[in-house]
Fold:
Amino acid sequence: MEVIILDDPAEIGSLAAGCIESLLTSKPDAVLGLATGSSPLAIYDELVRRYEAGRISFARARGFTLDEYVGLPPEHPERYRNVIDTVFVSRVDFAPGAVDGPDGLADDIPAACAGYEQAIRDAGGVDLQILGIGTDGHIAFNEPGSSLASRTRIKTLTRQTRMDNARFFDGDLDAVPTHCLTQGLGTIMAARHLVLVATGRSKAEAVHHMAEGPVTAMWPASILQHHPHATVLIDDAAARRLQLADYYRETYRAKPGWQGI
Ligand code: GLP
Structure:
């Protein structure tokens, strides 16, 4: 795992977007793993800027989102399909239907989850997966206790996650769904490159357990320690609990510019 601590949080967006630009340049039909939440917004804004400047195109790319609330009506603005469309997909040139997500309104949820896994496989797997992290160490909606080998399935959200996400539902905890469909940790681990972004003090404990704690289902993001190509982009506030922060800073400072992330 490469941990990169950036003084300027704005750099996180440009570094991740640069990585996606390189990927699309070498592989225009790349498969991107898209995440919701506030953390990746700077990446999407930077990708939109590069698209508008004519530097990149998503016309041949595919996208798969990580997760979805169960039961939100199709027009609900917090339905993740709508969120990702608003914050990113509709602002660039993806082909119609090129971005897929788990169906939180499916009648047969196990079949929908199995179908989603198959769709990712049929697309050739995810080349680059963007990730945020929850304050309890979840990635996608894999809450503490999730099987480290899990695949797309239904999960019950923890009270902590529902409280964290109530800000998107006018602060109304009761309006936050209790269940979700989420790619599993095994699904996420199959992506060829993982890029996790985290900013702010509230993420510091989860970032510490992810990067420096034991690999445990209690801190689901710690599974990234087993990934051959995981990049973690964080600001100073999210890095404040890291024991090896100085080492990560020195390593990145000394890294040749051509090497990429
Ligand atoms: C939600 C999403 C996660 C996201 C997390 C953190 O629970 N399902 O994919 O990583 O929130 O969100 P934020 O980046 O807004 O802190």
Notes: The first helix runs from residue 10 to 26. The two ends are 11 Å apart (CA to CA). Helices lie at 10-26, 41-52, 80-87, 109-122, 159-165, 185-189, 204-212, 245-253.
